[in-house]
């Protein structure tokens, strides 16, 4: 059993697993100065799962408080638990980057959309914005800012003189790993699901959130996600369960409170038991690494152009000049048209739409350049984001109209939809080249 490092007086810190410890204002405190758990406090009142390392009186305890991230009840549960229970340390399901984004208004004016497109970050930025849109819309229905219970946990622990830790994996690492493990169609399925959820008109109440915290409801939802996007579920849920469990296990103090989303509680509990028993090892650094693409994914961008080029050459060989030109024409018409349709669906500039038609058949044969890069850069050049677009970004992302009105998000839509159109065109054109 671990010794209790809180027996010794030391400054209280907010520990960020990715960025080191950040000191916050707090008095020095030892575990002996923390009031004992209030006898009247019932953990089951807030659905808290309490795990003990052994039956010994001084055994280490892990209190897992499952929350809904936009629930007022969750904020109250966090504050009351920290005030009423003799907690030695608090671990919150948030990383330093997200904590800053929640507590500080982001300055989007520093964003360079040209750099985002050139470095291949457009998919990630669009995913971030759609996720932010979903969270803001959900929060609007309950009057709670997404992640408010995490902020409440940090503030309440500081007020009580208790240390706290940002226990989640950096959000950029999570998104990059999800992107690396998900293919092109999987990425689009994920974005489509996020967009549908973000702009749904369905209202969310506290009663709905209470149902979502029930384990049978959660297990059903997680199983649906696993069936629909297994790689995404692995990265967003399973890996973070292990990462959070490691943060909780490594936290100082005898009684550790973990404030986490309700969907993470079962996985964290299992991993904590495995860590205690020594049957599993969790390396947080490995869970932050971006996996290299597999052999198939590395070969695919080269295989498709090779197949298309071979089929067009086969058309010349089999049907002479007329047959070859016919195959080439089919390729240009189908691929270019669908990419242009995608750009038009994003309400791109007319010149961008024309360039989508012209560029798609060429970029589809080049594994290093996608049509989305071309159309995105052209749209950004023709319709540069204005200062007002950056200032309104947080408000515009909560509606479809706002996404189209804001030049920054429309550039991302042009990038996405022209790319999707070209990809669909490629797979439609392939069988036609056999004709």
From TrEMBL:
Keyword Transport among UniProt keywords: no
Residue spans of biased composition, Basic and acidic residues class: 1-13
Entry keyword Membrane: yes
Signal peptide: none
Swiss-Prot/TrEMBL keywords: Membrane, Transmembrane, Transmembrane helix
TM annotation in the entry: 299-317, 337-360, 411-434
Origin superkingdom: Bacteria
Pfam families given in the database record: TraB_PrgY_gumN
Span list, region Disordered: 1-38
Biased composition (Low complexity): 21-38
Xref: NCBIfam families: traB
Listed name of the protein: Pheromone shutdown-related protein TraB
